Amino acid sequence: MNWIENEGFWRLLIFIAVFMLMYLLERLRPRRHNDSGIRASRWLGNLSLALINTLAIRVLFPAAAVGTALLAQQQQWGLFNQAGWQSEHTPIWQWILLLVLLDLVIWAQHLLFHKVPWLWRLHRVHHTDTELDVSSALRFHPLEILLSMLIKAVVIVSLGIPAQVVLLFEIILNGLAMFNHANIELPPPLEKRLRWLLVTPDMHRVHHSWYQQETDSNYGFNLSCWDRLFGTYVAQPRDGHQQMAIGLLQFRSAKNRSLLRLLMQPLRRSEWEP
Length: 274
Fold this sequence. Notes:
The structure is a single chain. This protein has helices spanning 7-28, 39-60, 64-75, 79-82, 92-115, 117-127, 142-159, 163-181, 188-194, 201-207, 212-215, 225-230, 240-243, 259-264. It has 274 residues and is mainly alpha-helical. The protein has a domain at 7-187. The longest helix has 24 residues, at 92-115.
């Protein structure tokens, strides 16, 4: 079966497998004692957003990221297409370089969504979840998802990134996003070593603190090096992982968990603007 021609099938299959694995690990080794009383309403909102986002991408960007890469390859658009990096015998170091480059773009985009006020209004929907688990990785406003896809398409076309690399990056990004949002406890020695390379759940949890100084840190989804390199790394939350409050202070009431509220949230002002 061709991976590119059937990318939707493979992405769905891997998504379901990783989602179920993270959910199972959350049940077996939870890091925090999340409020089970609000799980149903949280998951309904998060999964509903995921469904809307999937449909929006299919309607407005039917080619998505992989299709955009194939078009760029056919038209020989972009830096790396002109450099001949589309060969079937492309060396592995070029694939690794492009994956790292894409990860840096996603890190920079995430930082931008925190620093520009109107972008923050879209992105803060992700930060109003008052607990953190694998479903939180799906909680994004549809306008943010569409804008992110547009940015990604511009980068793919400009650089001429091969479709195989784009597909691999999309799978890695989705899988690691579910991993680092999951409420799972890693053995401390493993967590300490792993976070030198990858963003771990403990590292990313700091980013969902209700303290602005902590929310404005640890922007990575895949590689942890960018936050260390650019000075946005915070090792641990000030209140500890068990006691820290997750989610923005201004949107903690139960009514803010409804799908309509989540969709309309960017129109509402809050005391905290970047």
